[in-house]
Design goal:
heterodimer; A: 279 residues; mainly alpha; two-stranded antiparallel ribbon; 11 helices; globular; B: 169 residues; 0% strand
């Protein structure tokens, strides 16, 4: 395989990763890291660097469309970024202290649990009409979006900002420590803990993951983990896929988005447990 | 199909660019008068368009720069091209592959017209796009006259910029 074949084939796979990532609010690292390590036999460190690039590409590519279509909750997203960026920076310091194997097992179990809670909520997507959450009321994090699949405007209230912030801190921490899982914790935090509608959770997660990833991208660049010949096709392909995927989300029913998300979450959780138990 | 929060007989609101009034408001307990809400709706819409535009520009510029770098790389290295060639991509994706990973080496690489330097520049533009988006977020909350949210966003921006310095960039 020559470099040209490598670039073209990886770009095609990245388009698929971008579509999937933008639809369910994940960074596409779920696809990129295993493809690079198992299929192309690329060093794991370089694969993680490419995954960070893929996260930022998914986020910026999809969020441009989601923000314009008012699918993203800008206020809630920017508010919760307090916790994700703080988590990402503290995670960069904890890398030397915590054993990675323990983290993989712990994170795997957390994701298994959140895939279960997301699955259990599959029939109930009724947005809340009242909120007594003082933080959400003070910052006015509530919102409304137009759902093209149901052809109506759906207003919703936000609750549970405290558990939401705690989960977002964990999401930032984990993404800095393991280079993955940016959106895998963000979507359940907003969907299950804060009761944002599923599509809004996905779009807002997309909006946020770019910032979380950017907080640790500097470290990856300096450590020499961002290889241009891997990053170029990943960035270009994912951007194309995410731009396309962002057009799809509105038209798909919430239930489908949730189902796809749960399946991907189960896959990641098994992947994490495998890495922790049989490294 | 029933719509919540809408009195019976109210005209069906078709998809409009304006956010509905009940979803608006700034931080604090104050409720908005109808005129203020209308003004707010316009501001919120403008902010959404600007943030979307910042993301779109960042994405397009980075893709163009990355594509130019890739083109240059393949133009300068004929051995990378042939479909049946013997030059394996593994030589470019191993841990010993040389590529710029500091600003001084990036500058040298671009100055000598290396495609991989230009690709890294494009990737850095992509990495900076979310940072730019947060910076615009600070300005937009100042524009919406919402100091608590402006402070929140300013904190996020400070942590982001700080993280780049902590990394030693």
């Amino acid at each position: 395989m020559t470099p040209l074949d490598f670039v073209l084939s990886l770009a095609l796979i990245s388009v698929a990763a971008g579509v999937l990532g933008s639809l369910i609010g994940l960074g596409g690292g779920v696809v990129i890291v295993p493809v690079l390590t198992l299929l192309y036999h690329v060093d794991i460190r370089l694969a993680i660097g490419a995954s960070i690039v893929s996260v930022i590409a998914t986020s910026s590519g999809a969020a441009a469309a989601y923000v314009r279509e008012r699918m993203t909750n800008l206020r809630a997203g920017m508010f919760l970024e307090i916790a994700t960026t703080t988590g990402a920076v503290s995670g960069a310091y904890l890398t030397t202290v915590l054993p990675t194997r323990f983290l993989f097992v712990f994170f795997g179990l957390v994701l298994a649990y959140s895939s279960f809670t997301t699955f259990r909520r599959r029939h109930a997507d009724q947005p809340l009409a009242v909120s007594h959450d003082r933080i959400a009321n003070y910052f006015n994090l509530h919102g409304s979006y137009y759902d093209p699949a149901e052809q109506r405007e759906i207003p919703y209230k936000v609750v549970g900002t405290k558990p939401g912030l705690a989960l977002m801190y964990a999401a930032g921490l984990v993404s800095a420590l393991l280079g993955i899982g940016s959106g895998a914790l963000k979507v359940p935090a907003m969907d299950s803990a804060m009761h944002l509608p599923m599509k809004v959770s996905s779009a807002t997660s997309n909006f946020m993951i770019g910032v979380t990833a950017a907080a640790s991208a500097g470290v990856y660049f300096i450590r020499g983990q961002i290889d241009p010949i891997i990053a170029a096709p990943v960035a270009a392909g994912v951007l194309l896929g995410a731009t396309f995927g962002a057009r799809v989300l509105g038209r798909v029913p919430s239930k489908t988005v949730r189902t796809v998300f749960v399946i991907v979450l189960v896959v990641i959780s098994l992947e994490m447990l495998q890495k922790g138990i049989f490294p | 199909m029933t719509r919540p929060n809408v009195p019976a007989g109210a005209p069906e609101r078709p998809f409009s660019d304006q956010p509905p009034v009940e979803a608006l408001g700034r931080s604090g307990r104050r409720t908005l008068s109808p005129e203020e809400a209308a003004e707010m709706a316009e501001k919120v819409r403008k902010v959404e368009v600007v943030i979307s535009l910042v993301l779109r520009i960042g994405v397009i510029v980075s893709v163009v720069v990355i594509a130019a770098g890739l083109g240059l790389m393949f133009a300068r290295h004929g051995a990378y091209l042939p479909v049946r060639g013997h030059f394996s991509y593994h030589r470019l994706t191993s841990r010993s592959t040389p590529f710029p990973h500091s600003f001084s080496s990036l500058g040298r690489s671009i100055a000598s017209g290396q495609g991989r330097g230009i690709i890294v520049l494009g990737v850095l533009i992509l990495i900076l796009t979310p940072v730019m988006r947060v910076a615009v977020g600070v300005l937009s909350f100042v524009y919406e006259k919402d100091p608590p949210m402006a402070l929140v966003t300013l904190y996020v921006l400070a942590v982001l910029v700080g993280s780049f310095f902590l990394a030693g960039v």
